Amino acid sequence: MDGDRGTSIISDLGELHFAQGNGDPPTTVVAGRPPGEAGISIFGACFRGGAHFQGNIRQNIILFPLAQVQFDCRLADKRNTHEPPRGSLALCPAGIDCGADGTQSVDIAVIAVDQAQLTLASGGYGRLHERFVHHDKALFEISQNLWRESAAGYPNGSLFWSELSANMVEGLLERHSSEPLVRLPGMLDRLSLRRIRDYVLSHIGEPLQIGTLAAVAGRSPFHFARTFANSVGMTPHYYVVRLRLRLAMDLLREGRLTLADIAAFTGFADQSHLSRWIRRVYGISPSYFKR
Question: Of 23, 8, 38, 31, which is closest to residue 246 (Cα–Cα)?
């Protein structure tokens, strides 16, 4: 596979450096995601004579070593030397400084999960635990399916990838995340964020105002926008747009409605407005799904 794709994926992850034993980049086997998908991508590589990576990541990454070899690992100021068994995972939350060094050859699958994907799925809480090693058979099987799909050129289409991604996010939130024990001042609690998400989803095709969302959360409109952004990492407007886009993309994949009908159903001004947002977030034209 073209190494440029692997380089591009690594640059998307953050300021990361991957190298094998001789200092050269590893051999990229799979890299990327299907056109029209956002949120989860894969980078799979063969490291010969050793495996090394370090840096600060922008996305959440889950690493699956495909052989049992010894690693010296670092997550922020924590360190651990261990031999993670095949099928186990290491989890590096977004924003953390991390690294690992191993002296043996190994293939590694790296799944990147955009924080916005976790935020939208969880209703606002999507902070993942730091994991040096953890056995999760279900997530390992999903990673293997993502690897096979990417290596084969996505033969089952973007809908299958989307289903795998949803299952990956669900498993991460269910088994590898939790609500912070202490919430900082000026942040919304889980119940308020869940009420906001449920309200948006049940009124997805209607005009939604900041004041209305503030009332749903039981907050003053004056401070709501900043409080919401502090809590979920995006503005209320962008949060609503992303929820609308997620539904619109599902409808596009199904192929039963026209673009104009989808735009009206999901609350966009018209099909041009929806098209612009699809290009901005997913990097494709809606006509991609008519192929």
Answer: 38
What pTM does this model have?
0.83
| Distance in angstroms (rounded) separating the CA atoms of residues 138 and 166 | 13
Question: In this predicted model, what pLDDT tens digit does every residue of 77-87 receive, in sequence order?
Answer: 999 999 999 88
Residue with tokens 């651990």: 80
3-state SS, residue 168: helix
Q: What are 187-198's pLDDT values in tens digits?
A: 888 888 889 999
77 and 98 Cβ atoms separated by less than 8 Å: no
Rounded CA gap, 88 and 93, in Å?
A: 16
pLDDT at site 3: 47
Residue 205 pLDDT greater than 90, yes or no: yes
CA 204 from centroid of its chain's CA atoms? 23
CA distance 39 to 117: 5
DSSP 3-state assignment of 23?
Answer: coil
CA–CA dist 98, 56 (Å, integer):
6
